[in-house]
Structures are given as C-alpha cells and as structure tokens.
Amino acid sequence: MPSKSSTSGSSFSATLLFGLSAVLLVVCIMIDPREAFQASGQGLTVWWRIVFPALLPFLVLSEILLAGGFAHGLGVLVEPLTRRGLGLPGSYAWVLPLGLTAGFPAAASAAATLYKQGKISALEAEKMAASAHFASPMLIAVVVGTGFWGRPEWGLLLLAAHWLGGLAAGVTLHLLDRSPGPEPKAKPAVTSPSRPRPSRFRQALAQMEEARRADGRGIGKLLGDTVSSGVQISMTTGGYMLIFAVVIHVLTGILPGFLPSFVVAGLLEVHLGTYTAARLSLPPAMVCALLGALLGWSGICAFLQARSVLKPAGLGGTKYFLLTRLLHGAYAYVLTLLLWAPMSKWLPQVKSTTAEVDLPSVTAGSFPIPGWEQISGVVQAQFWLLLFLVAAFLVISLVYKKNAN
C-alpha cells in the first residue's frame, strides 16, 4: 500500500506538470494568436458540422429508451449470448449498436446510465464503454472516404475494418481476462415448484416495467432531462475538440523535427489526425491502413470525452480502455491491409497498392465538411443501421438459444 508521502508527492508532480503545460499553452497562444484562433475555429467547425448532428439525436434517443426500460428488456432476451461470447450483460446489445452507429462518447454515456440505475456493475460498465467505443460512420464513410479522397468506397473499407477490429479487440480482452465475472444485476423471477418459470419474453416485459417504474419521470420531465443531458455531453465534446485543435497547432510548431505532424495530430485528436494522415505521399493501401489504426486508437481527446461521462458516475477503467484502443488500432491496421485486395476486386474504383491517387485539392488550414443535406441523409441511415443491428442481435440470440436447447 503506498504511503501518504508518496501519494502526495505524485499528486504534486501531476499538478505541477499540468500547471506548466497550461502556462506553456497560454504563452504559445499569446505569441501567435491569429494561428491559434484559426485552429480553434477549425475544431469548432468540425464539431458543429460533423460531430454535433451525428451525436445529439442518438444521445437523446438512448436516454429515453433507457428510462423506458427498452435496453433492460432487450438485455433479458440476449443475456445468454452476450454472457457467453463477451462476458457482458444483455444490455450490451443496446450499448454496442449505439456505439457503432452514433460514435463516441454515446456508448460511454449509455454504460454510465445503466450503472447509475444499478443494472450493471462498475467493471461491466467500464468494459462496455471500452469495447463499444467506435468512431461515427459519418466521420469514416463521409468525411474520410468522400471528403478527404473523393472515393466513398475507401470509406466503406475503413468502416468495415474499424468495426471488425473493435469487435476483435473486445473478444480478445474477454478471452484474456481471468478475473471472475460479477453476478448479474437482474433478479430472477420467483417461481413456485408447481408453477412453471415465465418465458424469457415475459421476463423482458417485467424488466421493462420495473425500469420504467424505477425511473418514474413523466414524458415532459423525461424529454427535458434527456435533451439537457445530450446537449451538455455534446458541448463538452465540442470543448475538448476546440482545445485539442489548439494544442495540436502548438505542438506541431514546437516539435517540427522530432515527430511528424500526422503522428502528433493522430495521437491527440482523430478528426484532425486522419485529415493530416490522408495527405501523406504513400501508397493508397498504406495510407488506408494508417488511417484505420488512427481511427481505432481514436485519440486522447476521445478518451477524455469518454472519461468526462464515466468519471461523474464513479467509473474508472483507464488501463482497460487504453489497452482496448491499442488492440483496436492494431487489428484495424492489419484488417485494412487484408481487406484491400478483395475490395479491389469487388469495387473497381479502389486502386492497387502501387497506383497513384489524386487527392482532392484542399487549401491549407481548411477541412472538408459535408453539406447539410448529406449530413441529414447520413443521420437517417445511422438510425436505420441502429435498428438493424438491434434486430440482428435479437435474431442471433434466438438462433443461439434454439441451438443450445
């Protein structure tokens, strides 16, 4: 057990480091305020036109369905499948599709809500938030594929590798985790010897009713709370993106000879990191693989966004989260290279590894932003995708139950 002196010493060192970093950032902004203002404006534009419209509707929808007990009823139906495959409760069947379609930190928000409701343990919530942490399909398919390259098929390749890599990372950590799993939070239905146990569907309806009664908010109060919570999380996300846009600008000016700009940007913030990496003069397959790794890692900014949602609920799991991100990035890098050749055959527009690629011309300091019509179309597609993934979970769980019997 660490002594009080060592704990206070480490705390003082962390405080000193944070203070010096803040002072250095302020000094750099004062030296060149015009460039810092442009960098912050770029981060704000990316948040307003890409992250905000793709995130807020799903945050509101998730909070409403969690308060109404939908995730709890769904969890009862798919509990055997998720427990056996991933070591997680059945409510993961809602958290995972939400993360796949809405992007971060939507899954972390749903996991924190389930934990505060007492439906899952702290360890389960941390594992859910880490394994369901995905980039938004709007970023991957629309911004990176269409905006950066003008080739949507590349975005589909990155999206497939991103999803497969994230699922592989979650399964890998489950197989390597030797810690005993916590007891399920859901209470089994009490039955007498002469009375048969209710069907799983009836148990799901009972769980939904129990969750709705426990929440107890009327429709007006519920809508007000969910919109307020969603806007707050979205604003926090935008604040992190704005700050990190300035930090990336400062660091790339301080460390021009030590680290390439795409490394600095990619480690810190995924939107600006992928934009910088897409301009590299490398073979297309290598650029795609590098972008897949950066999307899987997602950046320190995305990690802090998830932490800003988990920490107020009393959740940690930093080591587990970062390990999942490293595995996700590594799997996505390898899968992108493996999928390149098949995609080249199925989609003729995808170039070979030795072909030259004419990237869209983008002026210095600008960022390709989709139009509002394109954004609304993608958000609508994300809603349909969320519905499809949840339905797929139900179908797979029913098939699994039938084969198990």
Automatic annotation (TrEMBL):
<feature type="transmembrane region" description="Helical">
    <location>
        <begin position="280"/>
        <end position="304"/>
    </location>
</feature>
<keyword id="KW-0812">Transmembrane</keyword>
<feature type="transmembrane region" description="Helical">
    <location>
        <begin position="154"/>
        <end position="176"/>
    </location>
</feature>
<feature type="transmembrane region" description="Helical">
    <location>
        <begin position="12"/>
        <end position="31"/>
    </location>
</feature>
<feature type="transmembrane region" description="Helical">
    <location>
        <begin position="51"/>
        <end position="71"/>
    </location>
</feature>
<feature type="transmembrane region" description="Helical">
    <location>
        <begin position="127"/>
        <end position="148"/>
    </location>
</feature>
<keyword id="KW-1133">Transmembrane helix</keyword>
<feature type="transmembrane region" description="Helical">
    <location>
        <begin position="381"/>
        <end position="400"/>
    </location>
</feature>
<feature type="transmembrane region" description="Helical">
    <location>
        <begin position="242"/>
        <end position="268"/>
    </location>
</feature>
<protein>
    <submittedName>
        <fullName>Nucleoside recognition domain-containing protein</fullName>
    </submittedName>
</protein>
<feature type="transmembrane region" description="Helical">
    <location>
        <begin position="325"/>
        <end position="343"/>
    </location>
</feature>
<keyword id="KW-0472">Membrane</keyword>
<feature type="transmembrane region" description="Helical">
    <location>
        <begin position="91"/>
        <end position="115"/>
    </location>
</feature>
